[in-house]
Specification:
globular; Rossmann fold; 2 domains; three-stranded antiparallel sheet; six-stranded parallel sheet; binds nicotinamide-adenine-dinucleotide; 231 residues
Length: 231
């Protein structure tokens, strides 16, 4: 029975109304990533960065999981082997669709992190430079998201998952942000079958055994139906 690892990116949440990162006209076009998604940007202007993530958090709260998130939750519930989602997304749509095994390698916009003591807690809707840490009271909170130049979370656990995966899928990710873009090569080295589900070929499309093109809300439920029918 396959051990399945599924890497997801912004494309799986696009049809829930959350802007992707690199698609033309994407929400992130309006912002300079150096300003809002780097530790240096936060050091320069924490209020701007809090404002940016407050808006992302509000978008996330008003969005609903779509048919692709729901299909992955259905797969986890029905599959006799292990199904783990490793997501680059900072939204919580996988969890709200009912998935339980979700690894947020780039953190979560609904969480706050104290840069003083390392405590994590559920972020208030609006964070600011004055938000106090509930553990140490210091006003040194940041959104608990991984910025460019920082180490993604839970890499050791992800490495172990990729070592034992027999089927690796990437959904809605452009293959431009490492280390996630390197997971397909790692999974292949371990002998896993690989499939990419994306609206258009990613930067690493050539490394996948199977390519499925189309919107996630169409392709992911189809793929899940096929997997469940074949088991
Ligand atoms: P990306 O924006 O670079 O790429 C998105 C990919 O999804 C593209 O290849 C695009 O062709 C594809 N796509 C777009 N709409 C699709 C659809 N409806 N169905 C299927 N595929 C579709 O996203 P990425 O690779 O995840 O980029 C990485 C970074 O962006 C991550 O670090 C992540 O933290 C951040 N990000 C997260 C969110 C979120 O949490 N929802 C949103 C934007 C960006």
């Amino acid at each position: 029975m396959d051990n399945i690892v599924i890497l997801t990116g912004a494309g799986i949440s696009a049809e829930s109304g959350l802007g992707t990162f690199r698609d033309a006209g994407g929400l992130w076009d309006e912002y300079d990533l150096d300003d809002v998604a780097t530790p240096e940007g936060f050091a320069r202007d924490p209020a701007l960065v809090h404002g940016f993530y407050n808006a992302r958090r509000a978008n996330c709260l008003s969005a609903a999981p779509n048919a692709a998130h729901a299909a992955l939750a259905r797969l986890e519930a029905a599959w006799p082997g292990r199904v783990t989602i490793v997501t680059q997304n900072i939204d919580d749509l996988h969890e709200r669709a009912g998935s339980h095994r979700v690894v947020h390698m780039h953190g979560e916009v609904r969480k706050a992190l104290c840069t003083g003591c390392g405590h994590r807690w559920d972020a208030p809707a609006e964070m600011s430079v004055a938000t106090p840490c509930p553990a140490c009271t210091a006003a040194r909170a940041r959104p608990d998201v991984v910025w460019f130049g920082e180490m993604p979370y839970r890499m050791e656990e992800i490495g172990a998952l990729l070592e034992t995966a027999t089927l690796f899928a990437a959904i809605g990710t452009s293959g431009t942000v490492y280390p996630a873009a390197g997971f397909v090569a790692e999974a292949r080295r371990q002998g896993a079958r690989t499939v990419e589900l994306n609206a258009e070929p990613s930067e690493v499309a050539g490394l996948f055994g199977t390519l499925r093109r189309g919107p996630a809300t169409r392709e992911v439920p189809r793929w899940v139906d096929e997997l469940l029918a074949r088991q």
